[in-house]
Amino acid sequence: MIDIIDLHTHTIASGHAYNTLYEMAKAASEKGLTVFGSSDHGPAMPGACHEFYFINFKVIPRTLYGVKILMGSEINILDYNGRVDLSNELLKKLDYSIAGIHEPCYKNGTILQNTNAYVKVLENPLIHIISHPDDSRFPIDYDTLAAAAAENHKLLEVNSSSLHPLSARQNAWENYHVMLERCRHYHTSVIINSDAHVAEDVGNHSRAWELLKEVDFPEELIVNSSTDRLLPFIPKLEECL
After folding, report:
1. Is CATH 3.20.20.140 the classification given to domain 5-239?
2. For each of the chain's 241 residues, which pLDDT tens digit applies?
3. Closest CA to 128 of 210, 5, 2
4. 148 - beta bridge partners?
């Protein structure tokens, strides 16, 4: 299947990644991507940049090395009510936003509490993607998650990095099996992302594709094949095309 999009990547601004924006964009071009998204961590992540980093994206070219560039953030979910670490005023300045649970920024709760955190985030019109909802350390109800994503017209991520044998996230392969079955049921669309923290990993979706092939997930529910599929979920993409 055609795969031309990667929207979950990190530069040195995240504090624990190792390449610059231009190096990551160049790698995207070399991998044959059409759309590259830079999504550095929100400020609650230890070592990440100040919120001021996210206010000046207007200076960044919309195209680098022949690749369309989207500037967003992987913001951190902070509590069970879906509070995140960038204000709505700042989120409005981004091309898109991803929201995820990260151990340094979130106190683990019950299945109900963790699920509620995601549902509340999905209700925020300024948040477009849920990142790596695959970690057994933060158990959730996948039926509720998939239903809420479909209802709010949001994307759930299949994170290729989570499937790495050395990933700290637990039982991702098994949890994705459950999530994808529920996504199939509710016709919830997904996006495959690399979660690249180094240029070599940009567009590296091989493990995610292996998983999707294994479960025979419907191609029409995967947005990576065309900008037309992605556009309804990321409206500001139109400004780049």
Report:
1. yes
2. 789 999 999 999 999 999 999 999 999 999 999 999 999 999 999 999 999 999 999 999 999 999 999 999 999 999 999 999 999 999 999 999 999 999 999 999 999 999 999 999 999 999 999 999 999 999 999 999 999 999 999 999 999 999 999 999 999 999 999 999 999 999 999 999 999 999 999 999 999 999 999 999 999 999 999 999 999 999 999 988 7
3. 5
4. none
Cα 183 to Cα 189: distance, rounded to the nearest angstrom: 7
Q: Which two tokens stand for residue 24?
A: 């990551």
Nearest-angstrom CA–CA distance, 56 and 68: 18
Domain residue ranges of the chain, discontinuous segments joined by +: 5-239
pTM of this prediction exceeds 0.85: yes
